[in-house]
From TrEMBL:
It comes from Pseudoalteromonas citrea. This is Kinase. GO terms for molecular function: kinase activity. InterPro entries: P-loop_NTPase. The lineage of its organism: Bacteria, Pseudomonadati, Pseudomonadota, Gammaproteobacteria, Alteromonadales. It comes from the Bacteria. Keywords: Kinase, Transferase.
Amino acid sequence: MAPWQSSFIKTHTLTDSYLSDAEPIVQWVKAEYIKMMGLPFCLGLNGAQGSGKSTLAAYLAAALGNDGLSVAVVSIDDFYLSPEERQMLATNQHPLLKTRGVPGTHSILQAIDVVDSFKAQRQFILPRFDKSQDKPFKSQYWQKVETPPDILILEGWCIGLKPEPNARLQSPVNSLEAKYDNSGAYRHYVNTCLAQDYQQLFSLLDKLIYLNVQAFDRVYQWRLQQERQLKVNLGDGMTDNEVAEFIQYFERLTVWGFASLPKQSDLTVRVNEAHRFIFE
């Protein structure tokens, strides 16, 4: 184990098995980068909440960086709209859009501009979002990338998703939709957003990795663990009931990902209950 790997394992509170689990993904990304013949390589990484996508993105950046490649990482979460912007959506479109999460609650044109700039090898700025305050960090805390990297990793729970077929939109998927979106206006709006500018963003991806957690029940358990750790670290966080309601915003498209993403991703990695990677 190299010193940088030991440091990574300690920092992210991982077991040594993570290194062997992640190594095939590192090698796959290196091979795909080589195929790009030196062109800017934008890698999409999709995984449900708690799947380990942010940790994997960080590990890929560290491993590839150790091999001499420059890597920048940004999350789709960093492009969330401000509370004020989401309140306008809630007023003008649907009250559920006040809560960050679904397509329609991101500054997606900003994300497109970032990836376009990367592809053109221009300098760009990566925004950062403060989830503890539910608002973007002030711009002085954003990351200015003056020398474009070899690889840009765009990670997030809805990365690469195509819009749902209309037949899937007919019925609520959970109690949140049944109570607050009985007419279907919210889910149709979200799907329309996903079908438009989000597809333009996803078309800029050169390859897509999908971390398939296989069951939505795991999302609740893992998000619960994350939130409890936040309380330990920051002294504040959602209650168990608030977590249960919050993840319902993500359920529809996460479940749609179970059905659709294995067919369209370039690499699908199953994630088991112990967070171990299993390759298909």
